[in-house]
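B., you asked whether I could sanity-check this one before it goes into the benchmark set. Here's the sequence:
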Amino acid sequence: MSIEICIINPYLSAISNEKIKNCALKISDKHTSILIDKQNSQDYFDLYSETINISKLLKVVEKNNSSDAFIIISFEDIGVETIRKITSKPVIGLGEASFYTANIIANKFSVITNLSNSHEALKNNLIKYDMDHKCVSIKSIEVPVLDMDTMSKSNLIKLDNEIQRTITEEEPEAIIITSPGIYNLSKNLSKKFNIQIIEGVTAATALMENFAKLDLKIKKYVAKPNRNFGIPI
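And here's what the prediction gave me:
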């Protein structure tokens, strides 16, 4: 069964696009094709706000007639809820995919983010998904997302130190790292620290691939006409 998953990446970086696509391909079926949309020009810094204009994201999905599922590269799940109102195809953000994956394999988990200004959106989403009681900490290494593309030694040291601190002080059973496309690094860190580390792109790809294979659609709400002709009951 041939499946196409469209990944919408607001982080305008050729390196980021390549890393994300390779990450998705590592765990997807040989009959699954990965499409990276490169037309979205949203400034990635805006993704930490829950009230941004998501019209560009909506247009990308509306114009796409070929893909079977969509992944939004946002751990804040920006636009996902609204996009689900315009398509019956499966749609997910990296945050929701990672949270649900962690929820299945761990009794409690921690989140390590790039920047602390994402914390409010993540906390609100955890409450919405009814998983806030399972998340024991959300901390940041204060490294911009695009800086993680280079994986400099100083960035890796910051990440290592925060993982060690999290394990020692919070005692989670799994850790989510909100840096998209770090599949190989997440596996190496998982072995190094002997803990399950969840990478968002692979978590989202696995979920969307299976939803597409099962041919599960989003149930659309259809407003019923007012049969009382404006006369209140």
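One thing to flag: Helices lie at 14-27, 55-63, 80-83, 94-105, 119-128, 153-170, 183-193, 200-213. Otherwise nothing jumped out at me.
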